[in-house]
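Data availability excerpt. The first of two example chains:
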Amino acid sequence: MCFEPDSFPPIPVIRGAAVSHEELVLEAADGNRFAAFSAAPDDPAGVGIVILPDVRGLYRFYEELALRFAERGMSAVAFDYFGRTAGAEKRDDQFEYMPHVQQTTPEGVQADVAAAVAHLREGGAKTIFTVGFCFGGRNSWLAAADQDGLAGAIGFYGRPADPAARASELKAPILALQAGDDQNITAEDNAAFEQALQAAGVEHELVTYEGAPHSFFDRKQEEFAAASEDAWARTLGFIESHS
């Protein structure tokens, strides 16, 4: 698990921003119907963000994150991974997600990413980024290989082994925001990822926040507020520079 059910993104709310939001059910090319949450500014700037949650799938943290992007002029869609096994209905905090995580496939996740991208494009977004966390971080980077036309792929504390193995297939710039005190992702893992990206000629930036734990990007993690602030600034800067 990354964030607790009562966690929120450590991002200032822009009061009075003109945004709208809705709960959606999207459909992938293979017929899978899955839950999603869309947030958009009243005056969009043509940038779209696909948000890939952590292993628990879609819940409030990621809906709030979509709103924070919309307040800054970007359309955003956060989606759920478990339409194929758990349906598209809303779930409570007691949902046993791991049996469903174990049934996901890279192909299924990317089919759902493609549906979210298509939804953003239908709404007028021309420049699309993926932003993922943990399980979603890894799959966000993999989207740079499996999705055509992405402007960039951002991952927070994702496992880098699979993206490193497919570095030569990555077609979009990569931003990796890693936790220095992550118990499951080592400095060697991150170094190998960066070396693979360099060898493949992939434009990238990999930042490690020393002493920060996995899922530090959380308003409740006050000790790591500076790391969160920097990570958010780098996220926005990456999007701006590649838009």
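And the second chain:
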Amino acid sequence: MDAVSHKDAGVSVTPRISVKTILAVSALTIFTAFITWRARVLETRLEQPTNVNTQAPDFWAATPDGRTVSLADFRGQKKVVVVFWASWCAPCRFEMNSLNWFYQHNHTASSDFEILAISVDLDTAAATKVATELKLSFPVLLDTSERVARGYEERGVPTTFIIDKSGKITYAHVGGDSSMNLAHELGIDEKPTQGEP
């Protein structure tokens, strides 16, 4: 008698998955989703600065052309937006473009705010090159030792801080910040116009 295969006999053989296997895969999926969610919650907590409503550490830093700018220069006169950035950071370049547009459309000599872009680049030439390429209108400061960044507990770039006229940090955010959000935080009634990035 010839052997008959299951294929010839019209019998389909499908692998059976046991209930234990289904439960194990389901439990692993749920556990993975939970761990991923929990890690993201912790990461968000670690990312965002915790120094809001504290006195801003005073600092001074040099501009690419050798001038020295200090936070104390603005105390009692202007709110200061401090943005930590780096030339190698793609989101920083986008952020600098957005801030430049905001500054050009909202800042005058009599404005009650100033933006200070603090580069944490070790290579001052790289920071200067990017600032020149982007034609930044606001002061660019160099923090090659990251002394200023450490004082602000900067945890990544770009990071934005807003310091009120009394020297208190009123706002902090890691990651890109839209100019509309910045306008709101500074109390500027900004209306979008054509050409906004």
